[in-house]
Write a structure and sequence with these properties.
This protein has 3 domains: about 60-145, Immunoglobulin-like, CATH 2.60.40; about 150-250, Immunoglobulin-like (Sandwich), CATH 2.60.40.3710; about 255-390, L,D-transpeptidase catalytic domain-like, CATH 2.40.440. The chain is about 15% helix and about 35% strand. It has helices at about 1-25, 40-55, 180-185, 375-380, 410-415, and strands spanning about 60-65, 80-85, 85-95, 105, 110-115, 125-130, 135-145, 150-155, 155-160, 165, 170-175, 190-195, 200-205, 210-215, 220-230, 235, 240, 245-250, 255-260, 265-270, 270-280, 290-295, 295-305, 320-330, 335-340, 360, 385-390. The termini are far apart. With about 425 residues, it is mainly beta. The strands form 7 sheets. It has a 5-stranded mixed sheet with strand order 21-20-19-27-22, with no helix packed on it. Strands 1-2-5-4 form a 4-stranded antiparallel sheet, with no helix packed on it.
């Protein structure tokens, strides 16, 4: 019974569907049947596409880096180019400040690049307009962020660009991040000299790399240093950004020798003795280091407080605190100086060693008397000049205490190279 009812229901439904199909086929009236593939809708779409193609510029803009890129280099990682057209306008600004970055478009109008190094850790916005031969415009835009200080390393260098230095001045690089890829970083430092002296690097630590020749620089040598750190991985996740060249000149050769026992310092320039000066070196309790020391800093006046270098009394105060030490020149990181001394009697110089390790020369308070021994020596000295201390009861100064790598044999120096 139920099967028969199902058959009747299916037959009725089929008859109704057939009627609907027949009605649909007859509903065109007198209109002609459509051609296959025709239809007003398709013809309109093709027309729109044709019009759109006619208005599309043939200029194709390319921008490096990609949109939303991070850790972008700040030297040469940004470039705009166009094919099939010329660049009309390139605007690059620092997000937030709106400061515009100046750039130069090539003479053929096909490329653009910033004129100067970008800032680290900065988001930049870049918009570009170009046009083809028919004047049809093309537009592109990018937003990207340059490498941050946290993800990059910097090599702080000595000497300064353009400086004239003494024959003992090394090229010293101090990095603000520990370097683990030492060989790659050392290899990225290129040093050229007019004297032809071989220059080798030595790692004192994972943040300090010095370069020097086997012997002191030849006088009047021109030295050029290229730091090719841009994009170089110094350690995992730490990339260099510097693409820098600096140069310096080695001046005349001046090497002074201090004899602690005779209390004299002989100043020799280019093999000739200029003067022999009476000095006062470190006392028996606080002797001066032996060894070759390089002048790394010159200060017309400076404050010296014993507490900063470990000389304190029972109350923790500095054993000395002199606010206006004249004509001071640093010889070590730990606080050794050659400087003027106005508080000791004149008879001290040339006869007694009374200091806390420094080398004292006769001077007056105020650093304004050019006839004083300390004033003369200050004016005749360059950063990088060498002072060799002999006959002191103290040990030889450590090579990394200041710019004093000369207190290391050449074999030891070369052994500290990563190459």
């Amino acid at each position: 019974m139920r099967d028969g009812m199902r058959r009747k229901g299916l037959s009725a439904a089929a008859a109704l569907l057939c009627g609907l199909l027949t009605l649909s086929a007859c509903s065109g009236g007198d209109d002609a049947p459509e051609e296959p593939g025709g239809g007003g809708g398709n013809e309109q779409s093709e027309a729109d596409r044709a019009a759109e193609d006619a208005n599309t510029s043939e200029a194709v803009i390319s921008i490096t880096p990609d949109d939303d890129a991070v850790n972008v280099g700040i030297n040469s990682d940004v470039e705009v180019t166009v094919e099939g057209g010329t660049l009309d306008e390139v605007v690059m600004t620092a997000a937030g400040t709106g400061t515009e970055v100046t750039g130069t478009t090539a003479e053929d109008g096909a490329s653009w690049a910033p004129d100067a190094q970008l800032d680290r850790g900065t988001q930049y916005e870049l918009t570009v307009q170009a046009s083809d031969a028919q004047g049809r415009e093309a537009h592109e835009a990018r937003t990207f962020t340059t490498i941050s200080a946290e993800n990059s390393f910097t090599g702080i260098f000595t000497p300064e660009d353009g400086e004239t230095v003494g024959v003992g001045m090394p090229v010293s690089l101090n990095f603000d991040r520990p370097i683990t890829n030492r060989a790659e970083v050392q290899d990225a430092v290129e040093i050229n000299t007019s004297s032809g002296q071989e220059v080798v690097g030595h790692w004192f630590s994972d943040t300090r790399l010095d370069f020097r020749p086997e012997d002191y620089w030849a006088a009047n040598t021109q030295v050029t240093v290229d730091l090719n750190f841009d994009g170089l991985e110094g350690a995992e996740g730490i990339t260099g950004w510097q693409d820098r060249t600096f140069a310096f000149t080695v001046g005349r050769s001046q090497i002074s020798t201090v004899d602690v026992q005779t209390h004299q310092m002989r100043v020799v320039r280019d093999g000739q003795t200029l003067r022999t000066l009476p000095i006062s070196a470190g006392s028996e309790e606080n002797p001066t280091y032996n060894g070759a020391m390089v002048i790394s800093e010159k200060l017309t006046e400076t404050r010296m407080n014993g507490a900063t270098v470990g000389f304190t009394d029972d109350d923790g105060e500095g054993e000395y605190d002199i606010p206006d030490v004249p004509h001071a020149m640093r010889l070590s990181t730990s606080g050794t100086f050659v400087h003027g001394n106005y508080w000791a009697s004149r008879g001290t110089f040339g006869s007694a060693n009374t200091s806390h390790g420094c080398i004292g020369l006769a001077d007056t308070q105020g650093a304004d008397d050019p006839d004083q021994d300390a004033a003369w020596f200050f004016e005749e000295s360059l950063r990088g000049d060498v002072i060799i201390v002999t006959n002191s009861p103290d040990r030889e100064i450590q090579p990394d205490n200041g710019l004093n790598g000369w207190n290391m044999s050449w074999d030891e120096w070369v052994a500290g190279s990563a190459l």
